[in-house]
Structures are given as structure tokens and as C-alpha cells.
Design a protein that fits this description.
Blueprint: E1 7-8, E2 32-38, H1 42-58, E3 67-71, H2 73-83, H3 102-121, H4 125-134, H5 142-158, E4 171-178, E5 184-188, H6 200-203, H7 227-234, E6 244-248, E7 258-264, H8 273-285, E8 292-299, H9 306-311, H10 324-345, E9 352-358, H11 373-378, H12 381-386, H13 396-416, H14 419-425
Helix pairs in contact: 1-2, 1-3, 1-13, 2-7, 4-5, 5-7
Length: about 425
Amino acid sequence: MPDRIHHTWDANGDASWEATGEAALPQMSDKDFVGLAFSGGGSRAALFAAAGAEALHDEGLLSHVTHVSSVSGGSMASSYLVASPPEQCGQQAHSGAQSETQSDRVACLETYFARYKGAMRENYFLPMEMQQVLHPNRFLSPTRRVTSLQETFDNKYLDGRTFGDLADGRILLINAASYDDGRRFVFSNMAIPTVENPPAFLRRETLTARSFSLGGCNAPTPDDFPVALAVAASAAFPPALGPVAIEVPPACDTTSTQYWHLGDGGILENTGIETLQEVLVRKNARGEGLSRAVIFSFDAGKREATEANLANRNLRLWTSDPGRVVSITNMRGDAYQSIVWDAMQAELDFPVRILRVRYSDHVPAGWPDSCSAGVQRSHTIAERLQAVPTRFNISDCDADLIEASARLGVSRMLQQNPEIRDWLAR
């Protein structure tokens, strides 16, 4: 049915094909690679990522970021950051504008981050369901519900932007899962090029990402592809949402029409780190001459409390939290990924630092004013933080706790790694 195909890609008419295998964007002259990884976790993850980005900005580190990789809820934050970057503060609206003062720039940035975090606090569930009601043919269809989620993201903050509208200078990598072959699928404004004589890691297709590159033809996500659809695909948790379907007529080395079926990237790898690691491995194999790399990981994914689960006699353990499937699958996936990365890192020609900030590890010292007396009596702050649900909406109390956790996490991370600030400044 036509309205169950979310995008039809005319690859033969797409000018972004790169037969040479080079990235579609100009190669960066800087030899440093600075990545941001935003995990899945609904609005909890989106706000944790946005608050973390603000904390990095306050420390003078955000401007160094070259690549942003995200999963599910974190893709809400990454798409906002790359589609409307804070660096736009200070750019003149027209050539005749007077020079901006420092105070003007500070005010602009304060407004920017307030709007950024405000967008991540929005209720996305209710508008999505309203779209379902307004379009009765979507009501019982998880596939069509993705369209409602896409429209909600556009209405709230993306304003119909496509990958062709993204600002130059930062690579966006939005991760979904391919239901066709169990691989990561990456939407990106950069082509993911093939590598001649690839190392063992890249020869294992299951461990590498799929993208709009086909065979020897490399392409970024098409310019007309909606950013909101990529975010919706990344967050399309089954069976409530999706799959997203992309129709690909014959192109490059394909002889028949393909249908790609994509959904929640968190069921494969929920941190967003693995795609950044693959990019590093590919750059190393291509001899691109990186000198060093650092990845800032903001992880708002749930972690399974094994002992509590084993002691719980409640048979609703699963039905009360369907999102538990992500944390279960990632316990095994994280172990495999760690083993593979340890092996590959030893072969890289440059050092890589991965600095992780997990929301549940950084418990604020006091309750925010937005948390009612009842909440404070029934939970410790740590318990409340752990209980923030994985949804497309978040309460003011939980949002304030998440923001405070992100700021505290960045502060502690820099205290434990004081050399990072000087390293990037050089």
C-alpha cells in the first residue's frame, strides 16, 4: 500500500553518488576526531544528551566535535544539534550587520540552549497519538504510526528539514536497525566509503553498518530525505512503531527493486559508540592520517538490575516495562562489541579515548523544586533517577533531575580526565 512506503529513493537521479569512494562532504583538514555518542532512552536520553552538550559547550569543548552518532531518543538531540548548530550564534544575518558584541553572543547561546533543552522536554507522545486520531487509516497500523511520529518531530523542532538542509561542518550519524539482515543502518550526511583490502572487522558484514551506499557506489543519505523520518526510524520501537520502509528501484549493482525495513537502533547497539568506532577503523584503513580521537558518550540507557529481577516474584516484570528488551539484548551485544573493539583498537595508528557519562552514575545532591513532596517521601534521588521511564514525554521533576545529572557527569568526567581540555585546545 503506497502510504506504507515512507520514502522512495531514486538513486539513478541522485547526484550524491560518489563513484570514487570519497566522502560526499569535503575532507576535514584537522587530524583530530572528536565524536559525540547519544544513547537511546526516549525523552530521558534526548534531554540527557542536550544537557550534556550544553555542559560541554560551557567547558569550551562542544565546538571541537566533528561527528555526532545517536540512537533512538538520542537522535532527537543529535538532529537538533546538527540541524541548528549553536555556532550559528555570532553569524551575521546580512552583510551589512554591525559587529556582534560578546554579550550578544552569550545571550544568543543562552537562548539557544534553553530552546534546545525545551524541545527535548516536549511531549511527543500525545501529538503523535492525535495525528493517529486525525488520520483514521493510521490508527491500528504501527507502520503508519511512524508517519505520525515523523510529523510530530517536524512540527515540534525540525520544520521539514532534509539531509540536504544540514549545515556543513559536522557529520550526523543516526542509527537504526535493519530488519532484513540484522545490521546497523546509518543515516548520514557523509558517505560511508568502502575500503580496499579491509581488516577482519570490516569483512564481517553483521558487524558493519548498512547505508545508502550500494556495492561500489557510495552515497550519503539523499538530500531530499527528511531528517524527521531518520529520527523516527531510529526510535521506532517494535511492535508499537514501524517498520520504516524505503523503496529502492534498481541502481548501481542491483537489478531489482529492494525494500529496506528499518526500526529502533537500540535493539542492536544502544549507545551510538559502535558507529563512531567503525568510522575510525575505516579512516585508519584508508590511511587518512588521524593523529588522535576522543569520543564523549552520553548514556541514558537502562541497565538491568539482575539481583532485583531474580528476587522479584511479580510476573508483570516484563509487561510493566516492554523497553526492557533493549537492555537485555544490549547486555550481550555490549560484550561482543567490547571484544571486537579491543582487538581492532590495537591495530589503529592513533590513540582513542572513550569518555562515558551515564545518567544513573551521577546523582544530584538535592531535589529540584519541581519534585513534589510526595515524590521526595516515596523515593531517594537515586531511585527516582533510575525510575525515569523510557517514553516520548518526561515530567518536569524527572527532566530537572536528568539535566542536573548531565551537568554533574560532565564536571566529574573532566575532573577525572583534566588533560582532555588541554589536548583539544592544542
